[in-house]
Amino acid sequence: MAIVMISDAGTDTVEQYDQIIKQLDEAGHGNPQGRLSHMAALKDNGSYFVVDVWESAEDLEQFAQVLVPLIEAVGGAAPDLKISPLHSRINGR
Q1: Contacts by 39-43, CB closer than 8 A, 24 or more apart
Q2: Bridge-partner residues for 37, per DSSP?
């Protein structure tokens, strides 16, 4: 079952996010299996949050094994996650 994951990075910086994305791309993990979409948006405090759609919770859990050590390596904190079953998805044209 597809899921939506909303990840609030707390006070982690956009620079930390950009560094993690670069490391994921360089390691061949920039487009992980099961991730259908990924969006990052800025918060008023200069941090960010992420909204992903995944094919399954298992795909997200597998990717988290790669992602979490990278977050920790750049001095980031564990994000606040909210995970819900996907009800509807409408793609743009």
Answers
A1: 42/14, 43/8
A2: 53
- DSSP calls for 9-63: -TT--HHHHHHHHHHHHHTT-SS-TTEEEEEEEE-TTS-EEEEEEES-HHHHHHH
Q: Average model confidence (pLDDT) for the chain?
A: 96
Does the global pTM surpass 0.85?
yes
Gap between the Cα atoms of 68 and 73, Å rounded: 9
- pLDDT tens, position by position, 16-47: 999 999 999 999 999 999 999 999 999 999 99
Q: How far is residue 42's CA from residue 66's CA, in Å, rounded to a whole number?
A: 23
The one-letter amino acid at 82: K
Q: How far apart are CA 22 and CA 50, in angstroms?
A: 16
Distance CA(81)–CA(71), nearest Å, equals 14
Of 4, 3, 2, which Cα lies nearest the Cα of 51? 4
